[in-house]
User: Fold this.
Amino acid sequence: MEPVTIFLNGREVNGRPGMTILELAQQEGVYIPTLCHEPQLVSPGAACPSIGACRICIVEEERTGALLTACTVFITPGMEISTDSPRVLERRRSIIELMLASHPDSCLVCDKGNRCQLRRIAAELGVGRLGFQKVPQTATIKENNPFIKRDLSKCILCAKCIRVCQDLVVEGAVDYFRRGFATRPATFGDGPLEESECTFCGTCVALCPTGALMEAEPAYRGTTANVIRTTCPFCGCGCGLYVEVKDGRVVRTIPDKEDPVTRGTLCVKGSYGYDFIYSPDRLTAPLVKVDGEFREVSWDEALSLIAGEFNRIKAEHGGESLAVFGSSKCTNEENYLLQQFARCVLGTNNIDNGSRLYGAAGLHGSPETGGFFSTNSPLTALEEAEVILVIGADPTASAPLVGYAIKRTARCREAKLILVDPRETRLSLFAELQLRPRVGTDLALLNGLCKVVLDEDLADESVDREAADFAAFAESLAPYTPSHIEEVTGVSHQELRHAARLFAGAKRAAIVYGNGITQQVNGTGALKALSNLVLLTGNRAAVYALQKESNSQGACDMGALPDFLPGYYPVTDREARRRFRDYWGSLPGTPGLTFPETLREAKAGRIKGLYIVGEDPVSSFPDAGYVREALSAVGFLVVQDLFLTETAKLASVVLPAAGFAEKDGTFTNFEGRVNRLRKAVEPPGQSLPDWQILLHLAASMGHPLPYTSPREVREEIEKLVPLYAGIGYGTLEEPAPESGAPERGAGEAAVYRKHPGGTPRLAPVLNGAGPPKPHEAYPFVLLTGSNLYHFGGGTRTSRAPRLRKFSAAAYVSISEADARRLAVSEGDRVRIVSPAGEAAAVVKTTDTLPEGLVFMPFAIAVNPVSQLFSIVLDPERKSLLNKAVNVRIERIGSDG
Amino acid sequence: MYEELRAEVARLGLTDVEVDFTGCHGFCEQGGLVVVEPEGIFYTHVGVADAREIVDAHLRQGKPVERLFYRDPVSRQAVPRYHEINFYKKQQRIILRNCGRINPEKIDHYIANGGYQALRKVLLEMTPEQVIEEVKKSGLRGRGGAGFPTGRKWEFGRNVCADKKYVICNADEGDPGAFMDRSVLEADPHAVIEGLIIAGYAIGADEGFVYVRAEYPLAVKRIRVALEQARARGFLGKDILGSGFNFEVQMKEGAGAFVCGEETALIASIESRRGMPRPRPPYPVQSGLEGRPTTINNVKTLASVPVIIERGADWFASIGSEKSKGTTVLALSGNIANSGLVEVPMGTSLSTIIFDIGGGILNRKRLKAVQTGGPSGGCIPARIPHTPVDYETLTMVGSIMGSGGMVVMDEDTCMVEVARYFLSFTQAESCGKCAPCRLGTKQMLEILTRITQGKGREGDIDTLFTLARTVKETSLCGLGQTCPNPVLSTLHYFRDEYEVHIKEKKCPASKWQRLPRRPLRK
Assistant:
């Protein structure tokens, strides 16, 4: 393309066709102030490159004397643009003065302080005394949430909040309201945020150029000097964020606008959930249990005690009597060190990680062995899909970033969303078609979809119909006729056909699945059936397996698994073991125990020593009583965590670990993107990053590991794990200098680890054990799922004051018809009884559930729902099956 | 009255008489009106009670009812015939050609008056390029106010490549005191629809919209009826008149926002979004409704098209001034004898309109100023009475053609109050999107209000100038870019009045009273 030549302040410069004046000026280092311009808020293909609302970026076209907004006008050959003519400056000053004339004089106490863009531009333009009279705007809105406070007297109506809410996170909680001078962003009905669609993702607060949108608690945080780019520690999305530090404390997190994947969005946990790092419950020194009481000890004392015990157990009972449980919240480097510690120092393959609970740990291995797809595309590909199939997942709660992407694609790009969920979720509104199968019938439904694809000749032409396995496969689908599916799943044959045609007809399709499949009885079968559907339709679909935790993917990649070395080399593979042995020394060759198996063996007295890093299975696993009993039976339990968790209370030694903002490393998110974690503040007291503790411990045991920093670990990973080779992983840049304003940041390049190769083959999948059969004593099916405001076992979120304050007590959603039948109403307390246990909760009535189905989310501060499940493993993947259970509901009356 | 006339005719058993209703005749001052054709006897101020007398005396006995004749406001002479009345005699009605002459709910009336002949000619004898060429040659310019050459707009629309294009009739007449679009829609809806179909053919669109204010229920009804009739007669739908051209029209009702008359806001409103303008370019003709090329024309522009096709571009171009061709419809109001709708050739002087057609100023007062173009127009002082009314001249004297509003103000009018009044409207109707318009209009309004209350300060005039220029030069859309006109033009022509307000705390327009003079008469 021919460059476009224009004159910028008298200088001849070249730009690309389609560039705005602003973009060209930025390229040339010519400063033009802006207030409403925000590149990531422009949806691709939009008519205008910007909103052009604040008019601060006006420049003068010297040939015509016209004033143009630099953010909206494209360059054309021969333009003569002046960015700072006297007229331009005078008009800019007038506009700023107009804004200040209706802005309160509260700059001295405003928490926006030096971050205020209005103030900065006013200063740049030398606007001092106002020539205009003060015309105040409406004042503060009464809100009752701990996250966001709105003071619209400071609003300049740049509409960033409106645009981000509608176009990027697609909640639509705020929009323009009223006309003329009274115009402002408001919720529907102009009520408080907590009564609106707002999910408190905080994205608008981060974008607000003035103090109109601010953190609510505490009201004053002050201006920060240091800003560090790091990664959100919660779910598997791995959002890029900046941590703002003042006086050595984290005072704020803000999303990274330049991040190509997150595009400046976060969720409520990313924005307001970091508070846990300053919880008074943080451990600050190693603890040793003496006579049932914990006593603070020095690191030397704690480490030599552990080293002595582990060495003794290993000598007396062998490595197989030791076990390690790693964390899907710890970094890649830490998990790599941990599995190396287990295998080479302790001499056991009994290592697993926290993602076992959510089914992720069982998903791995090559597709040929597993027979199903996991994530195969970056999230950006989802937004190019024409049809999106979401099954067994409510990403709006469990993986908000993915939820945003799906909603954007459905709303702005008119992609068709096929939602498979028995419940109505926030995605239902965006769905072209929602199939609501009975709980546990996903496999039948997916087989039914495959059957329609075959019968209506919708299969892709690349499918080899002559192949032997094709005939067997087609044969196996014979019973799954639409009428049979209707009977089994409750999904009408019309809807089934419609869904199959939509999906098969798409040139670009995407599939998003989550725990609703992996934790479900028959989940393995459903995953294989899903693979069949992908293959039948030409193997083009982008597949996304959602991950619950920040490093579920990475912990598995790093070999914190009993059957795989880093990079999914089976431990039984002699060749692979040899490769690692050259670096590490000898390795055990028999697969170890998964964590649930470890618990079983512990209960039987066969596990003598257990090392748990960053997990709290007593709180997060089903059947806390059983877990407690099993862990108590372990002779020597070491727990390493931020807090004295329920699990840690059972330990002999507790080691204080550093939180996400206190250490360096990398996380690998659900799509395989490798994100940097950077140290922003010092860990409290004597606590140390997990990787340092591991190195100390290995040294204490007489088997020092040859690393001194996470970077050295990365360099080795790059050498030994092909998934991480050649992506620049080992040399990912060191922590950014601790200064600079994030809004001018260059952003972080997205680095993806490679996808494990191999393609599954079409294979028959037959119904295994059916869904939970209704039982007279337990007439309801209870489904669990995520809660946007809480996370995992609640170890961290229950210690984040704002999240804790906002979340309700344990509740159970019941359909209105069922509530009537049970004679319970909103707010009543009920007892929920399953064959495994019981839990108490408050009733919420809803019209989003079919009769007979109740919903109780995981992860309230105290997590009663896990009491209802017992530990049941999927035989093939050895994942926990704790998605649905039969229950009965009893009212807790005033008489007890 | 219509019912009463019919009942009376039926009671007397008159068989050679047909009673029918029409749209507005445009002579507001004189309603209700009854015209007896073919003589063209024109009865004014007719009440229900007069119906019997008209039927009995005039229709049965052939004796016109003299007491209901129109009386010239100046000479007080009775003028019995329509065509002899100054108000009508000096007009040239092209856009309003059928207004008051046909029943707007009967397509046959329209067809009998030559309707849909132009469409037939266009579809069967002309290529789209020829249509555009004809419109270009006629010199027709957008009657919405900005005066962009219609033929060129259509040419842009034609030349944009797209799988789908739209044409829209902008019938969101929002200016207070402007009712010409309404009159055309209510009195001659088919003319607009015919123009819209021709526009669709010319640019290559197969779908059109009429975006009309919901506050015009009668217009809404008449458009709906007209669309149904046109569809039934095959002027809309598939393969129109056997030409192979397909075209459908939908009507969309606005929700009351003034700014929705702005093209991009109008498009947003049709797309069910809040009606707010966006920056241009890209112009709607490049990327409009649903991102498709969209050509938007005003009601009067479209109503002019069939006549141009029928009578030829040369005929049309022979009317009007050098750069402004054809006629313009003005809504004459204020302190004037004959208020109403007036259609005159472009370039007609203000004095002709005010004194000859309008019958002069009421109560023998002197003319002080004329405000043209709706709330965003400027005030033209009485000392330049021969100003021709066309796009260029009005812009030159600090006003605009705009919607065609024309408010005549006598010597008692306070010009600061005039500016304040018009600004209070545009301030309230600002969509709030861009800062200068939202904040600047409010700031100006505060200052003007203070001045009219005798609380003006030294420096207010300079501040007003700064604000008005900022709003005019930096606002996002036409609303903001034109709304300071009443302030700027009164500051320019009547600065001394402002100064008296500020320095002496009194209004010179009212010699016996401190402040303020009576509010502007509407």
The two ends of chain B are 27 Å apart (CA to CA). Confidence is low (pLDDT under 50) at residues 511-522 of chain B.
